[in-house]
Amino acid sequence: MLTFTLRRLLISIPTLLFISLVIFLLVDLAPGSPLSEIPLTVPPDVRQKMMEALGADQPVFVRYVLWLRQFFIVEPLYMLDGWFGTNMAGDQQRILSWQSRVPVFTIIGQRIPQTLTVIGTAYLVGVLIALPIGIYSAYRQYSLFDQFGTLFAMIGFSVPTFFSGTLFIIIFAVWLGWFPTKYNTQLQVVDWDTFLLQLRQMALPVMTLGLANAAAISRYMRSSMLDNMTQDYVRTARAKGMTEQTVVLKHVLRNSMIPVVTVIALGIPSIFGGAIITENLFGVNGIGAALIGAINASDLPMVQTLAFIFAALIVLFNLIADVLYGLLDPRIRYD
Amino acid sequence: MTDVSPQTVKADPVTKPEPALKLEKPASARIAIWRQFRTHKGAVFGLAVLTLLVLAVLIGPYFWNPEKLTVAKAMAVRNKPPSLQFPLGTDQLGRDMLQRMMQAGKVSLAVGFVAMSIAITVGTTIGVLAGYFKRLDGPLMRLTDMFLALPLIPLLLVMVMLFRDDIARSLGPELGAFVLICLAIGITSWMQAARIVRGEVLALKEREYVLAARSIGALPRRIILRHILPNVVSPVMVAATLGVAEAIITESVLSFLGLGFPPDFPTWGRLLFDGLQYMQLYPERVIWPGLAISLTVLSVNYIGDGLRDALDPRIRGR
Q1: Interface of B with A (CB under 8 A)
Q2: Residue B234: CB atoms within 10 Å
Q3: Could you tell me the pTM of the whole model?
Q4: Which residue of chain A comes nearest to B256, CA vs CA?
Q5: How high is the ipTM of this complex?
Q6: How confident is the model at residue B212 (pLDDT cuts 50, 70, 90)?
Q7: CB A307 to CB B154 under 8 A?
Q8: Which residue of chain B has the CA closest to A279?
Q9: End-to-end Cα, chain A, rounded Å
Q10: Cα dihedral A168, A169, A170, A172 in deg (nearest 10)
């Protein structure tokens, strides 16, 4: 297991390097870079200085290696400095956002709590809804409940979050007035009242994303339960006279959870992708909103760094899912 | 391979002349597939809804073609609720929503089919090459894994933002946006098809008939085209169906974030995005396009579900 994990970690290094190169080149070689948007009235020498100030006059390869150095060496050093109060990084150049001249990681640090509270809660809620639905659907296959579960999952798959979110806003915020339409990022949770306010403004985004996630996961749970329900060990357990509860919730559930846990792990990075829409719709000032803002402002370092972080998350959680699979299922041996 | 529904629709008249009378003659595969497909209620419902939507979008404009209003007249009929003259109401510029919905639907569906065709072509090619030629397997599958690790929505957004103006300049804003978005979606969503096809090909190439073909000296090109490709059609067709739904959603996400089609060349996603500003006063303007997208995707998903069952001979036999 350990050798497998190490091997996978080693393989993921070239993968990540390749992805970072693709992202860097795609963003960098594209015609719509901000340097092409400098007005033509700007004299050539000033334009040259602007490009030098942005570091954009260097060849692509040099900038790529510089960016790698900043991402993998300078930024972690700054992070360690921040934690331990040391000064290892000195005054080395950090990755600066072009729109605000603030280090990209500072912005990410400010944005990530918003994303984690809202999107993380949504994912958790989604999982918590999906598991019981999946379990009961499989236990009573083809029952009325199962039919409704299937319909619910199909609708959850098919209705895009930007439409379900809009519908929720129209119904619950505009017509019923239960929840605010926009998420207030300034809100500080200090006492009971602000906590309730926070819950209310989180309700709509959490509901939107939670339903979308629940639809997919409940299907996995159901099919995984169905695979296990007909196994011999289930018949054995029943024959031994165990209660239905023990059979389903202990024997079957534990075995069925193995693939579902990996699916849940694989879904974690994708919530960042889906979160772009939800954050945009509800005005949650998180990572996804930062990416959209950076794209609209042609803020290349920000876009490159964020896209690379997303890619790194996908690779990391793929690895975690594989390792989890091996840990949870003793039949699977990678070595 | 690309248009799934017309093929299955065509099979309909064939089933009508009492197949039960000729028991000694086994039904052709196409009829058997159609019969199994018909037992899936959701799939039949999906096929009906999708056919209706496609017809409405393609033929509808011939029946519903309101005269172009002058600016003064259009100003007078801004923001009208649904009425006999405007069945779906009008938008903030006095344009008929029904007409716009039909125009938008044409583009949305076209994007779905074209992007899916690109994705399936690329995916099948890579899958067959990786599955058949051992030397290519490692690099191609590594490439697939890398594409799977790319954060797609952000990348698509970046691609559209960066290349939009350049392509619009050379191809015109409408065609430019169409080509760019179809290509962008196509080359970022072929991975599933490639993986499925590779798996199938790996199993197929060990079969006796492939061995037989090779033993009489058939070239790889001929074995792939004549013996392997026809046998991977079923999974590819299912992947293609689901790919259409995926592509339509991806396009509407791009349009929804304001990085899709220009407003005078709308898609359903773009109409929804335009309606968002007026959501509180005129919610129907968001609901129509959203409903159209959801219904299309829902019916396509159901069709894919039914096709998966119908094309699987293990299920079909029962």
Answers
A1: 42, 142, 145-146, 148-155, 157-159, 161-166, 245, 249, 252-253, 256-257, 259, 269, 272, 276, 279-280, 283, 286-287, 290-291, 293-294, 297-298, 301-302
A2: 18
A3: 0.81
A4: A162
A5: 0.78
A6: very high
A7: yes
A8: B257
A9: 7
A10: 70
